[in-house]
Amino acid sequence: MGNFTIEIHFPESRSQNYHEALKNARLFSGFSEKPNILKISGIEEVFGRWDSFSIVLNYSVKWAGTTVYLNGKALLPYNSAMFYNLQANKTCYHNYCEAFDKAGFCAQFDWGCSRVNYYLKSIAGYGNKWYKEGAFSDGKWVIDKGKLIAVMAEEARKKLAEHCPAFKIENIEKKIRLLPGTITLDGNWEVQFEPMLTESGIKQIPVGIDFIEQEQEELQAKGLMPSVSFPVQKNDQVGQEVIDLSKIDLEKLSDEEINILLEKYREGKITGKPPRWEDVPF
Question: Alpha-carbon distance 72 to 90, whole Å?
């Protein structure tokens, strides 16, 4: 967990919300008046007094003369992305604190942290593919695990997840170590080429790989997502290769079937709108 500091310097204001902001700022030990400066060292105090922090920040940034400093750097102009990142981190950390298996809470996520999700863990579906980070060597594709770690660490930094009390870069590194170091280019993979000018003319140089999804060309021609292997056979619509969630009668599905459908939709493997949670017959 990195060192975290935030300061909110805000002037006196005629706003009707000024006294509310001042009252909540006084709840923090690091607040001083004339001029109004709220200093918070440690993410735990932000999470612990989240409502008061939200009031001070979101009121004061609307007033001319307010400056917010994050880890010693002025946010000019102020960007609300900082607040929403902190809010998402607070929610996840709350769930971590409520979990019985704290050691396994972060490990349940693809990359060891719920906030680190730039790369898609599955080799199929749409998204940024981890296996594309690499280079050719002796007829094999070698995964650049160092780059994967660097990109995920930068994602954690930008999302402020690195300041979460439960965050450990070792969790990410462990997940990446479990990935294969090389990929043998069999019939499941397509080599990507780019033209390059050489002394002997223009040649097609291999620069990357892509996983060949089952029946991909045929389904793309129809404007559909790649085919899905769905193991549940209790419903005719569920048994189809390409599933449209909007046409499925949820009342006829078991809890297991519903869970599988939702998981497949999150993976981007089926079409149609997902069911609203309030419509799921649990």
Answer: 21
CA-wise closest residue to 58 among 84, 36, 76: 84
Other C-beta atoms lying within 10 Å of the C-beta of residue 77: 7
Can you tell me the distance from the alpha carbon of 187 to that of 207, in angstroms, rounded to the nearest whole number? 18
Per-residue confidence band for 177, with pLDDT thresholds at 50, 70 and 90: very high
CA 115 – CA 109 distance, rounded (Å)? 9
- Domain ranges within the chain, ordered by starting residue: 5-79, 100-132+143-181, 216-279
- pLDDT for 44-87, tens place per residue? 999 999 999 999 999 999 999 999 999 999 999 999 999 999 99
Residues forming a β-bridge with 141: 136, 183
Quick: pLDDT tens for 119-163: 999 998 889 999 999 999 988 999 999 999 999 999 999 999 999
Integer CA distances (angstroms), 50 to 13, 66, 91, 209, 264, in order: 23, 20, 11, 46, 35
Contacts (Cβ under 8 Å, ≥6 apart) of 280 = 250, 258
- Cα gap 85→87, rounded to integer Å: 5
Q: What is the model's pLDDT at position 261?
A: 66
Tell me how far apart the alpha carbons of residues 122 and 33 are, in angstroms, rounded to a whole number.
Answer: 52
Confidence of residue 244 (pLDDT cuts 50, 70, 90): low
Sign of CA dihedral 177, 178, 179, 182: positive
Q: What pTM was computed for the model?
A: 0.73
In DSSP notation, 109-167 reads STTSSTT--SEESSSSSSSEEGGGSEEEETTEEEE-HHHHHHHHHHHHHHTTGGGSTT-
